[in-house]
Write a structure and sequence with these properties.
By secondary structure, the protein is of the alpha+beta class. The protein has a single domain (about 5-70), classed as Alpha-Beta Plaits (2-Layer Sandwich), CATH 3.30.70.20. Helices cover about 20% and strands about 20% of the residues. It has helices spanning about 25-30, 50-60; strands spanning about 5-10, 15, 65-70. A three-stranded antiparallel sheet has the order 1-2-3, covered by helices on one side. Strand 1 (about 5-10) and strand 2 (about 15) form a beta hairpin. The radius of gyration is 12 Å and the shape is globular. It starts with 5 loop residues before the first strand and ends with a strand.
Length: about 70
């Protein structure tokens, strides 16, 4: 079975989520709840924070389920 990979972008950065790696530590939710809210769809809304805030929080993901990359042409 192919692993699910989701991409969320704000035009500057793209957050990549690999749910199969997620250990549900809630570090993302606890650190930036206005962006990461798992009870809603989509559960990641990048427009509610700056790219710097987002990348700093994503870098704290202990499982590697969340990563980020610069958005092409930004």
């Amino acid at each position: 079975m192919k692993d699910i990979v989701k991409h969320y972008t704000n035009g500057e950065v793209t957050v990549v989520w690999k749910p199969a790696l997620c250990i549900h530590s809630a570090v993302c939710v606890g650190g930036l709840p206005r962006v990461f809210h798992p009870k809603e769809l989509p559960w990641i809304t990048l427009e509610h924070a700056t790219s710097d805030e987002i990348t700093r929080q994503v870098d704290r993901c202990p499982s590697g389920a969340l990563t980020w990359e610069p958005t092409a042409n930004s």
